[in-house]
Amino acid sequence: MQRKTVLISEPNAADTPAPFLPYIWSILKSHWERHGDRDYFQWLDPIFQNDTPAALLRPYQQGSIDVLGLSCYTWNWQIQCEIAQRVKARNPNAIVIAGGPHPDYKDRHFFRKHPYIDMVAVKDGEFTLASVLSRLAENDREFSSVGGLCVPGPEGEPVCTSAPIVPNIFDYSPYQDQSAYYGQLLRSNKVFHATWETNRGCPFSCSFCDWGSSTMSKVRRFDMQRVEADLEWLARNRIVMLFLADANFGILERDLEIARLLNRLRQKYGYPKYLTYTASKNHPERAIAIAREFARTGVCPTHSLSVQHTDTEVLAATARTNISSVKQIEAAKALMSSRIPIDVQVILGIPGDTLEQWKICLTDLMEWGIHEEYYTFFYHLLPNAPAGEKSFLDRWQVGTIERTTFSDPRQPLEKGPLDRLRNTRGRLIVETKSYSREDWVEMATFATLVKALHNASLTRLIAVYLRLTHAVPYKKFYGDVEQFFMKCALAQSWYGVLRSHFQDFLHNTDATDHMEVSQLPKLPYMLDPARWLVVQVCLQFDEFFDALGDYLVECYPSATNLASVLDFQKNVVILPSYARSKGKMFHVDCDWVQYFDQAWGRTGTERLDEPTATPGAAVEVTDQTCGEQSYFVQPLDWGNGGREDRWLQWIKHCVLHRNSVAKNNFQHLRLHLAMVSNE
Ligand SMILES: C[S@@+](CC[C@H](N)C(=O)[O-])C[C@H]1O[C@@H](n2cnc3c(N)ncnc32)[C@H](O)[C@@H]1O
Ligand code: SF4
After folding, report:
1. Ligand 1: which of 306, 375, 410 to mutate, most ligand atoms within 8 Å of CB?
2. Nearest ligand to the C-alpha of residue 280?
3. Cα 468 to chain center, whole Å?
């Protein structure tokens, strides 16, 4: 008898730098093989690459497909729908079951909109799919008694069966179970990334979040033998990058031990090279100990602080509580004292936020002593997150747009038309009762300004000096700088472009938030707005600093060494005019090197005296690279091409990816005092 076939489809996001090994497939298949009739179904090789549906389905053209399982996320929903449609057209009797966080089964028209989907599996799919397969193995197509499903009711509306059974025991490694198939993939010697889990679930219920459909649930931990087995397998098989899918790594006491285990295996096998993970928001001591472990070996050189917003009322409106700002500051200080670069995650457009509050949020981070890489996400409305509920949408009078979005919006985007099907389409909140669409444009523009000028340290040192020595709050300083961007002709033109860009983003369904640098036509990609602004400023560097200097000196006439810090800031920005073989020297009349060393990690209220006067002194710059450590380190080498090529190389090394003082400003600075004559 010909065996029935099961095809699992879990296409990667279009913008992952390397494909992820198909993981959901191995979880589902391993579970079935351990609990069901192993020989009854033939599991076809899974779909996991990102390509057109026609290309993805090509290998299966000859045979029939009896069960199609779709693992649906925002990044593959369009492709999955098209795949389901095509499979159903060729195999009308196939059962199509959609799982993952994305299917919007709360929409009463869901099955009318997606007639090619027979049922939706909610939450973890192992037991649910196994029950469906068991029914099919007995030629039974009645699924109403299978828990964890939503099926079309008499009127076509989704009707959910009983609660799903979710696994509580995780005692074997699907990677090991399915190593025969993975071995074939890995023998190609291509680079693969992989998903790794050590627990499932998150006890919190932040409105925006739908992490693995497992929020608002207790944390279900994997057996340590499973954790070790998965990790050993992944390291031995030379997986380059691991994405740890735990919602809050560090939430469990044992997580520090797991971090050490990862380091030990990495030392033994040389892999994984990199790890990305999301740290627990409410266990700062453990989160920092883990960050130190990962930074020590370089497997994850930065630490992400998941802040979302600094205002407790805005957080409350999105059902989130953070640790207090005092504790956040302690955590930031501890990270900085270990020289672990910090990324901060914040969300632009939380219902309840306002333009004013958003400006306070970004400048609060500066007041906390955190100056680098504010990772500003647009608020994605995920259909099964609490924010997707009608009551939430009505209460906040939410307005949304659907746009192409990216896993990491900081990445450059290759020029050329976007493939709407293969790229992620996300629903973004751009209007609520507390802010208008115009406010949203202003919020996005202000965030761009802060990220370009402060995070990328074009004006950060000036801001720090005025804050620590002249008590000018960061909010006031960037408010003044924003005014400068509205008044000064040069900066005004950039601000105008940014505003129209975000307005266009609101109205044009094909827009992305990436921008083209028209002065550099050879640049093969577009940049996110903050990096675009960095490039604009640097292309007209002297003119910008001259105008800004005049303006600031007028704003702050009593700041004794303002002109001097402006000059210092200007001299330490890395530009393509720098020749690393020669280094450079510039004059200073204050010891800014020592001053900024002392300023490191200070909160806004930790005062610092004026720098020591050093008339006639000079600073020698000898930097050969930029960036903190590990993969952030980039050579200050612009190649041998012409002017435009040098700019292109500079963008590649100094503008893309993480921005920080170590990335954008010279760090190897030596002060030479003037020789004082005795005569
Ligand atoms: C999955 S979250 C979880 C991290 C961690 N558990 C926490 O409590 O923040 C990782 C980051 O993605 C961002 N994020 C998650 N869901 C989002 C959404 N719907 N819209 C915008 N950003 C989101 C948040 O900034 C968050 O810090
Ligand atoms: S944002 Fe983090 S803490 Fe909040 S529900 Fe999502 S995973 Fe849990």
Report:
1. 306
2. 1
3. 31
Residue nearest to atom 6 of ligand 2 (CA): 209
Give the tokens for residue 636.
Answer: 């200050």
Ligand 2 pocket member 247 (CB < 6 A): yes
**465 touches 562 (CB < 8 A):** yes
Angle at 625 between CA 595 and CA 528, to 5 degrees: 90
pLDDT tens sequence across 560-591:
999 999 999 999 999 999 999 999 999 999 99
The maximal CA–CA distance of the chain, rounded, in angstroms, is: 107
The DSSP bridge partners found for residue 242 are: 194, 275
Q: Is 476 exposed, middle or buried (0-12, 13-18, 19+ CB in 10 A)?
A: middle
**Nearest residue by C-alpha to atom 21 in ligand 1:** 379
- What is the 8-class DSSP label of residue 630? G
The answer to whether residue 16 scores a pLDDT higher than 50 is yes
Once rounded to an integer, what is the mean pLDDT over residues 135-145?
94
Nearest-angstrom CA–CA distance, 264 and 528: 37
Three state DSSP letters for 525-542: EEECHHHHHHHHHHHCHH
CB 269 within 8 A of CB 238: yes
> How far apart are alpha carbons 94 and 383 in whole angstroms?
26
Q: How far apart are CA 40 and CA 5, in angstroms?
A: 9
Q: Are the CB atoms for 281 and 248 separated by under 8 Å?
A: yes
Q: Given 3.40.50.280, 3.40.50.970, 3.40.980.10, 1.10.3120.10, which CATH number is that of 4-160?
A: 3.40.50.280
Q: Taking the domains of the chain in order of start, what are their residue ranges? A: 4-160, 168-300, 563-672
Nearest listed ligand to the Cα of residue 350? 1
Ligand 1 atom 15: residue of nearest CA: 209
Residue 360: CB atoms within 10 A of its CB come to 20
Going by pLDDT thresholds of 50, 70 and 90, the confidence category of residue 679 is very low
Q: What amino acid occupies position 383?
A: P
Nearest to 572 by CA among 634, 535, 632, 620: 620
The finding on whether 205 has its CB within 6 A of some atom of ligand 1 is no
Query: Cβ(199) to ligand 2 under 6 A?
Result: no
Nearest to 479 by CA among 376, 355, 379: 355
3-state helix, strand, coil in the chain (%, to 5): 40, 15, 40
Query: Is 7 within 8 Å of 53 (Cβ atoms)?
Result: no
Ligand 1 in reach of 315 Cβ (< 6 A) = no
CB 249 within 8 A of CB 277: yes
What SS3 class is residue 587?
A: strand
Its CATH architecture, for the domain 168-300, is 2-Layer Sandwich (3.30)
Question: What are the structure tokens assigned to 589, written together?
Answer: 């009349």
Mean pLDDT of 252-262: 98
Q: How far apart are CA 385 and CA 206, in angstroms?
A: 8
